[in-house]
Structures are given as structure tokens and as C-alpha cells.
Design goal:
It is built from five helices and no strands. With about 90 residues, it is mainly alpha-helical.
């Protein structure tokens, strides 16, 4: 017997297709940002599929939030590195 329910990846593709008119009306500079949100969601599709949440949009939002948190952590670490580098450069003068 085949699957009776679509996979989460299938659902994610369907959600992305439903949002395509919205994407098209975004300013060009924001379209890549919109696309990146779905990249984040696809990166976590395995976990979202295991969850099998009744609201298929909720795992998409959590996936995006996780990736944005990761990016914030990386940027904060980079800022700390730059600040440390600047403070040691200033001490040499």
C-alpha cells in the first residue's frame, strides 16, 4: 500500500506554491529573503515530518526561527571576535 498522507516535504512545496502570488508581489530585493525562509524550512523538514503536527504551518515557523537564532548566534560570535581583535589592536598602539 502507498502513503495515504502527503509527506511533510510535499506539504512544504504546496505551502510555498500557495504563497507564490505573495512572493511575486514582493519587492525584488525581498524575494531572495522570502526564498531563504523556505530553504530554512526544508533544512528542518526531516524533524518536522517526524513531528507530524496537525498544523503543518507551525513546524515551518519553528524551523525558520531556529535558523534565524543560529544566524544571530553566529553574528554575535563574529561581533565578539571583531571587538576582541579591535581591543588587542588598540593595546598595541
Amino acid at each position: 500500500m502507498g502513503r495515504t498522507n502527503p509527506t511533510y516535504r510535499d506539504t512544504l512545496r504546496a505551502i510555498e506554491q500557495r504563497w507564490e502570488p505573495y512572493r511575486r508581489t514582493l519587492r525584488r530585493r525581498d524575494q531572495p529573503r522570502f526564498d531563504q525562509l523556505f530553504v530554512y524550512a526544508r533544512d528542518h523538514a526531516d524533524a518536522a515530518g517526524v513531528l507530524n503536527h496537525e498544523d503543518r504551518f507551525a513546524p515551518l515557523l519553528v524551523s525558520i526561527a531556529i535558523e534565524q537564532e543560529r544566524r544571530i548566534d553566529e553574528l554575535e560570535a563574529r561581533i565578539c571576535e571583531l571587538e576582541a581583535s579591535n581591543s588587542t589592536d588598540g593595546a598595541d598602539s
